[in-house]
Amino acid sequence: LTKAEQERDGHCAEITRLHNALRSLENDQQDQEEDLTIEVDDLYRDLADEMNDKETYYNRRVLSMEKDVDSLREEIESLEEEKDRLNFDNENIVADNECLAEEKNRLTLANDYILAENSSLVEIVASLETKLAEKENDESSTISGASSASYLKRTASELETTIRAIKKHHSE
Question: The whole model's pTM is what?
């Protein structure tokens, strides 16, 4: 073989070797690309799963918060109804207290009147007792001691009846 043929054969062998090396590199690159595609797909799936988990968590949390808000709204509404009821009860109590104060004033006036009447009656009884005593001491009197005692009892009974009638009148 000539030197040129030997060089050509050497170059062909080199080209074949380089061609095989290139094919091997292309196969390695394709394997690496497939591995990277699988890794990227796995990472994407993991990321998607993580996002779904987070979205599920946030959706649950939002739902829980919405339930809490609804519950708080119901509680506020219930408290407002209770406040309205208590305000109504308070207004009734205030009105009742005003009526009771008016009734107390009326009864105080009636009691004062009864006390004044009672005092007046006591003075009348004392005056009658004094007159009776004077009549008993008077020798020219025609009324006997027994008659004057009877007269005094009758007068006292009339006064008691009058006092009861006045009390009954003012208690109505």
Answer: 0.42
Give 83-88's long-range contacts (Cβ < 8 A, gap of 24+): none
**Chain segment 121-130, per-residue pLDDT in tens:** 888 878 877 8
Q: Give the three-class secondary structure for 66.
A: helix
- Is there a contact between 159 and 125 (Cβ–Cβ < 8 Å)? yes
Of 108, 103, 113, nearest in space to 166 by CA: 113
- Classify each residue of 116-129 as buried b or exposed e, where b means 16 or more C-beta atoms within 10 Å of its C-beta: ebeeeeeeeeeeee
The sign of the torsion formed by the CA atoms of 130, 131, 132, 133 equals positive
Contact (CB, 8 A) for 128 and 148? no
According to DSSP, residue 143 is labeled S
pLDDT in tens, 7-32: 888 888 888 999 999 999 999 999 99
**For residue 151, what are the contacts with CB-CB under 8 A and spacing of at least 6?**
132, 143
**What six digits make up the tokens of 152?**
């005094």
